[in-house]
Each structure stands twice: as structure tokens, then as C-alpha cells.
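ERR on first pass: missing label on line 2. Operator R.T. fixed the label and resubmitted. Corrected input:
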Amino acid sequence: MIRKQILRYTANQRTNHWLVAILFFMAALSGLALFHPALFWLSNLFGGGPWTRILHPFMGVLMFVLFLGLVIRFWRANFFIRNDGLWLKRIDRVIQNEEEGVPPIGKYNPGQKLLFWTLLACMLGLLFTGLVIWRAYFSVYFGITTIRWAMLLHALAGFVLVLSIIIHIYAGIWIKGSISAMVHGWVSRAWARKHHELWYREVTRDEDPDRPIRKG
Amino acid sequence: MASQDIIARSATTTVPPSARNQEEVAKLIDTTKCIGCKACQVACSEWNELRDDVGHNLGTYDNPQDLTSETWTLMRFTEHETDAGNLEWLIRKDGCMHCAEPGCLAACPSPGAIIKHANGIVDFDQDHCIGCGYCITGCPFNIPRISQKDHKAYKCTLCSDRVAVGLEPACVKTCPTGAIVFGTKEDMKEHAAERIVDLKSRGFENAGLYDPAGVGGTHVMYVLHHADTPQLYAGLAKDPAISPLVGLWKGVSKPLGLLAMGLAVLAGFFHYVRIGPQIVEEDELPPVKDPAVHEVDPSVHTFDPRGENRP
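pass 2 clean. output:
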């Protein structure tokens, strides 16, 4: 008996992902409120300027801790394999929805892998610079030059993170079936084979071992 | 002061009101006349109703040891030995310099929490302050302090409430030696020039006015006996300016960052409009084949993951 659909994400993985997503939105919106005067009105979402200042670092730390859960769950699947280089070279065809000449890839495509490592770098950067500029508890332990560097790098890492997530969200909208994969966990066989063929072969390898080998 | 007097406002990108033209004011602190009596410190806490905690004596006359949210001005004492072997007691009244280009105002993310008046006074509006401490990061003189009671930033206001009704700042009024004077910036420069001529005639060749150009000039100025080495006066910055790190952080990078985010969203939208979604037709799925057969599919074998038969 072969199941019609393939489980791509377990309930725990999905929960972890969406918790990070919720925390990201809260941390990002409150961070953007302080990023540029044009977005200061976003602080109203959090109860005003002082509450935004109070809450933002706690939301950021919680997001980092939850993101570590995703890292532990997914880091092994995000090492680059040989096909990934060619896939990236053919990224123009991928973007055009063309499949000709695009090599099969594993559970994650190289774009997703780049995103994963970029997010990890940004999260680490935001955590450490964020602690330095956390005026209520930690800034007193750092010199003014360190704090100025941390301010600059925190804004930079936040910018890269938001930009990466914009791409991540659009990819989910563009590639039909991937949002539902993260919402209820299941993907169709056709979806798995089309987008992640090596992974598809891996998860279906054990099925039906008695099937006779057909020639041609 | 009326809102028409505000000529710069934190986190505000539009032009502020500029209906009124006021003469710039300045406080001139003559370190060569100062006797270190701390009357100015007392007058400041009297007028502003500030009662800082009683500190500890750490072997110098500095008390408290540093500016705090309840000590807006502080006498800093330096024992300086000249090349000739004489002792000079350099006493500097520290506090906000009221820069023409205030680093605190540039760094502040909260609209209207820091304002600059047409007369040059830089003031904090605690009602709009969110307590982030960015002003500390932006200040080239290390002046603002966050209160541990209400987590708002505080510093010398140049007694903007007194100046608004035609009075001089409290510290000026109380100074017994006339070391602190207040008036229009032009008058204060003239007064300083006379003082400097006098000091030079007494052998202080390097006497001069401290009105640093790196921050556009200040509305608190010093007459120094050693204007060539202001660092002698408890580390007064020689060439203060808004740090390039702060300039980059608060300068072009953020509008460009916002632009990039907006463009990324637009790029996604138009990709969807022009190229469209990537949809898997469910009938694309061929019958489940043996993987070995599948691997020799001519459309994919060139890119076999094991690296064989690569072009």
C-alpha cells in the first residue's frame, strides 16, 4: 500500500516554524518602528514607544531561542550537495518556471539552504549586537565605540533578515503547495518529485521493494 | 517656548516651523576664573528640583563621580603639572554643550523627543522619550543619562524654562566669580576674545575659546588656558564630531534599506504577475517507477548527483 501523500513536516516542526514566524513578525515590526521615523507609527501596535522599547529585545531573544529549535531540526538537511552549484547557475531558469536543465535537488533547494544559513548568521548577529545595545541591562558593560558598532550591525542584520524573509514568504506564495506543506505537513507525490526529486527518491526508496524491475 | 521656536526635531523628516528668527544664545564658562565652589551644581539641583543620592568620596573633589539623570552639571577637577613643574588645578563644569548639530537628536528614533530651539538650546521632551538610549550613542560628549526610576533620558536644559522668560540659567545667576556668563552667542564670543587677550598677556600663550566646529559650534563654550589640549580638562574632546558610525547608522543607509525592502516586495509581486505561480499538475506524476530506471531518464541523467556523465 503506497500512501498518496508524503509527510514533509511533522507537527512539532510545523509548530516550531510558526512560533518563530509569529515572533519574527513581532520583533520585526517593533524593530522597524525604531529603524526609520517613517515607520515609528508601528510602535502603536505594541502599546506606544516605551512599550516597544521594552518588549522588542524580549521578543528578539525568544525568537532566537525558538529559531535554535529549527536549526537543530533542519541543519543536517541544509548542507550543500554537488547538484546545488549547477542549480544556482541555472537560477534564471528556475525563476522562469522552466525545468529544462535544472538538476534534481534534495529536501531543500540551494536557495532554501542559502536562506537557512543567512538566517542563522543574522539571528546570531542580532542576538549579540542586541545584547550590547540593550540599555536596561547590558549596555553599561560596553564602551561607546562597541555600542556604536553594535547599533550599526544590529540595523544591518535586521535589514538582511527582513529582506530574506520577504524572499522566503514570496517563494512560498510562488511555489504552490509549499505553504500547505508548512501548514498541515503533507505534500503530493507530484510536488515532491517535481521540486525535490532526490528527497522524493529517498523517502520512496523503501516502498514496494517487490516491484519487478521494468526494462525500458 | 512656543512650538514656532523649534527648528529641529528628532525622527522628523519634514521641515520644522521656522516662522521666528531668534538670536542664538550661549553660555560661556571661563575655566580660568572658576574656583570650583560647586555653587552652579547646587543652583542646578535647586532650580530643577533634582536631589541626587549622596555619593562617596573617592579621593577627588568630584562629587558625584559622574553625571547622572539627577546631576545635569558636574565640576570635574584635574591636577595638571606643567612642563615648568608647577601645579595647575584645572576645573571644568561639565554638562550638555547644546551643539548646533546635536548627535543625540540625529540618533533619536522618537519623533519630537529631542528638539532644537531657534536660540540654539537642545532640549529633551521626556513625554516623548521612549528610553532607548540612542541619544547616549549619538552624543560626542557623553552627556545624556537614562534615569533608573522612569527610564527616560535627562541632561542640562540650559534652563530653557528660565531663558524663555528672559532669565539667565540658574548656574549663571549663582556663579560668585563671574566665571559663567550668558547672552547672545555673538556677545559671548566677544567677551571670550577679551578674556583671551588678557590671558595671553599673563603668559597663557595657548589660551583660547572652545567652540568646536566639528559639531557646528556649541551653545555652551569654554575659555581654556590650554585650548590646544582640551583633553587636559578631564578628557574634553579635542575635535568632537558625530561619530561616522552614527552617521552611517542614521544617515543614508536607512532610507536605502527601506527602499530595498519595498523593491523586494514589488519584485515579488511583478514576478507573480509576469511569470506566475509554479503549480504542480497532479497528473504529471508518472506511475511509480523503479529508481534505477528513473536515473537513466535522458532529461536528468546528465545531472546525476553522483557526478557521472557531467557535460
